[in-house]
Amino acid sequence: MNPARLAVVTAGLSVPSSTRLLADRLATAVGRHLADAGRPVEVETAELRELAVDIAHNLVTGFPPPALRDTIGTMARADGLIAVTPVFSASYSGLFKSFFDVVDRDVLAGKPVLIAATGGTARHSLALEHAVRPLFAYLRATVAPTAVFAAPEDWGASTDTRTTALAERVDRAAAELSALMTGHRPPPAADEVTPFADRLAALRVPPHP
């Protein structure tokens, strides 16, 4: 069986980068789910910071330099895409947006995509829904239902409940992308809704003795 081709695009600016770390975790999880389905996978990762000058040249001239052209070609041939951006000013980074500005909008038409982001505060997590998801909807990609956001507190010890929550989101999103890549329906999202009565009970102050 031919291996599934998974392209990963990460727009982290530092080395090491939490954005790259999240991208790697997602790619590993997708690979695990595809292996469980009997499908080997080939992963190719592009660090957009290494292509920043090429992206700027393409924006000005309309022609991609060879390295950028190869990256876009890899993404076009892939069976699925993981796209991860840091969040600045409550939206995707300029580098991330500039890259997709130079990608022909037909390249991602119908392609399964998993979107993810990192940020300095959990309040930035909404950027995935109000900025990143609409971008890929415009590009006519098939976006996995679960988007993954990682704030600094998500990178804790293995016994930290927040870290466990990140691992669960990564696994659920990876399962959805691998299902889309193999032509299956994504697994249903887990019911994480807490009843209002339970939320209210948690806020009640216990009486003084």
UniProtKB/TrEMBL annotation:
<keyword id="KW-0560">Oxidoreductase</keyword>
<keyword id="KW-0288">FMN</keyword>
<dbReference type="GO" id="GO:0016491">
    <property type="term" value="F:oxidoreductase activity"/>
</dbReference>
<protein>
    <submittedName>
        <fullName>Oxidoreductase</fullName>
    </submittedName>
</protein>
<dbReference type="InterPro" id="IPR005025">
    <property type="entry name" value="FMN_Rdtase-like_dom"/>
</dbReference>
<dbReference type="InterPro" id="IPR023932">
    <property type="entry name" value="CE1759_FMN_reduct"/>
</dbReference>
<feature type="domain" description="NADPH-dependent FMN reductase-like">
    <location>
        <begin position="5"/>
        <end position="155"/>
    </location>
</feature>
<dbReference type="Pfam" id="PF03358">
    <property type="entry name" value="FMN_red"/>
</dbReference>
<keyword id="KW-0285">Flavoprotein</keyword>
<dbReference type="InterPro" id="IPR029039">
    <property type="entry name" value="Flavoprotein-like_sf"/>
</dbReference>
<dbReference type="InterPro" id="IPR051814">
    <property type="entry name" value="NAD(P)H-dep_FMN_reductase"/>
</dbReference>
